[in-house]
Amino acid sequence: MSPVPRPSTQHSDARSLAAIADGDRQALESLYLAYHRRLARFLSRFTSQYETVEEIINDTFLTVWTGAREFRHASQVSTWIFGIAYRTTLKALRRQKQHALVDPLDACGEPGSDPSELADVRDWLSQGLARLSAEQRLTVELAYHMGYSVEEIAEITAVPVGTVKARMFHAREKLRRHLPELRGYGPDEE
Q1: pLDDT of res. 112
Q2: Which of 24, 95, 158, 160 matches a 20 to 30 Å C-alpha distance to 168?
Q3: Gap between the Cα atoms of 50 and 64, Å rounded
Q4: Which CATH number fits domain 1-102: 3.30.420.270, 1.10.1740.10, 1.20.1250.20, 2.160.20.80?
Q5: Which of the following CATH numbers is that of domain 113-190: 3.30.70.260, 2.40.170.20, 1.10.443.10, 1.10.10.10?
Q6: Cβ atoms of residues 84 and 63 within 8 Å
Q7: Domain limits, the chain
Q8: What is the CA radius of gyration of the chain?
Q9: What are the C-alpha distances in Å from 166 to residues 106, 139, 153, 170?
């Protein structure tokens, strides 16, 4: 789960963004370095291709560079950046015919669990998440892995809160229906 940015980080990000709006390349580099790891970790859940992750991050920061003047401080800088990355990811996934999830959840099982069993659980969850639409998968990841609230996800994805809730509902329903099948259970077994 991603911790909520501290006020000092929020203030620093806002200062960096203002400098970027004024054409400061060092501020862009600083912000890029501050967000690269978090974005890469988030994006690697949607594509196993390192080059695609890097391309999405670069496209995100190109948008930050060209759009910094339009940032209106209606949200946190981090929410704005993740929103850009989200929309860029959707475009990239739509361009790619085939996309695979890699390690959809970090903590599957107990620390002392059998590694092969953990791999099976991750594979099982990956197969279940792969049955979701790109929008549902990204919403689930933003909520359960990144720790964003429904309101923050609505800002990131530029959709109403009700749409986020509907995506979560439908994603849970699909997972509830498909995960037992993928595990080899019938509809009423477990």
Answers
A1: 46
A2: 95
A3: 21
A4: 1.10.1740.10
A5: 1.10.10.10
A6: yes
A7: 1-102, 113-190
A8: 18
A9: 25, 10, 12, 6
Tokens standing for 134? Answer: 């790109």
pLDDT beneath 70, residues of the chain = 1-8, 96-118, 120-121, 183-190
pLDDT in tens, 49-104: 888 889 999 999 999 999 999 988 888 899 999 999 988 888 887 776 443 444 44
Q: What is the reported pTM?
A: 0.60
Task: Please tell me the distance from the alpha carbon of residue 126 to that of residue 109, in angstroms, as a whole number.
Answer: 15
What pLDDT, on the 0 to 100 scale, is given for residue 98?
41
